[in-house]
Design goal:
The chain is mainly alpha-helical. It contains 4 helices and 3 strands. The protein has a 3-stranded antiparallel beta sheet. The longest helix has 42 residues, at 93-134.
C-alpha cells in the first residue's frame, strides 16, 4: 500500500474521533483502512503512535456503507418527536404509547409463564406422588471398602 499524501489540507483525526463523528465503529474503520477504502497514517499521540484517517474520506465512505444490521450499533441518533416543554418533567403521551405496548406484551408473557409454571408444579407433584407409591423400599447397600495403596 502506498504512503498517503501528507501535504494535503485534509483534516486527519484519530480513529476514535472519526468513529464518534460518523457513527461507525473503530473496528469498521480499521477494516476500511486495511482494505484500502480509506487512507490512514501513523501520527504521534499522547501514548505513542496512533492511526489517523482523513475525516472527509471517512464521511464519504460511511455514506456509501450499507445500513447497519439489526445486531450492530450503527449511528446513535435520537428519534424525532415533539419537543419537551422547557422546565417540565412531563413526557408527551405520543412518546409513551410504544412503552405501554411493550408493558402490555410483558404482562401477557408474565401471565403465560406463571400459568406454565403452575402447570409444571402440578405435574411434578403428581409424578412425585406416583413414585412414592410405586417405588419399593430401598435396600441399604454397604459402601465398598477403600483400598490402601501405601504401607504394604
Amino acid at each position: 500500500m502506498s504512503e498517503p499524501d501528507t501535504t494535503s489540507t485534509e483534516e486527519w483525526v484519530p480513529l476514535k474521533v472519526a468513529a464518534e463523528a460518523t457513527g461507525v465503529s473503530v473496528a469498521t474503520l480499521r477494516k476500511w483502512y486495511r482494505a484500502g477504502s480509506v487512507p490512514s497514517r501513523l501520527e504521534d499521540g499522547p501514548y505513542g503512535p496512533q492511526k489517523a484517517v482523513p475525516l472527509a474520506a471517512v464521511l464519504e465512505r460511511a455514506a456509501r456503507a450499507p445500513a447497519p444490521s439489526r445486531g450492530s450499533q450503527g449511528p446513535q441518533t435520537a428519534v424525532p418527536g415533539p419537543a419537551p416543554i422547557p422546565g417540565s418533567a412531563l413526557i408527551p403521551m405520543a412518546d409513551l404509547a410504544p412503552l405501554f405496548d411493550r408493558l402490555a406484551d410483558a404482562e401477557q408473557r408474565a401471565a403465560r409463564y406463571q400459568a406454565e409454571a403452575e402447570f409444571l408444579r402440578e405435574q411434578l407433584a403428581r409424578r412425585r406422588a406416583d413414585q412414592e407409591v410405586e417405588a419399593p423400599a430401598a435396600v441399604p447397600v454397604e459402601a465398598p471398602r477403600r483400598r490402601r495403596w501405601f504401607g504394604r
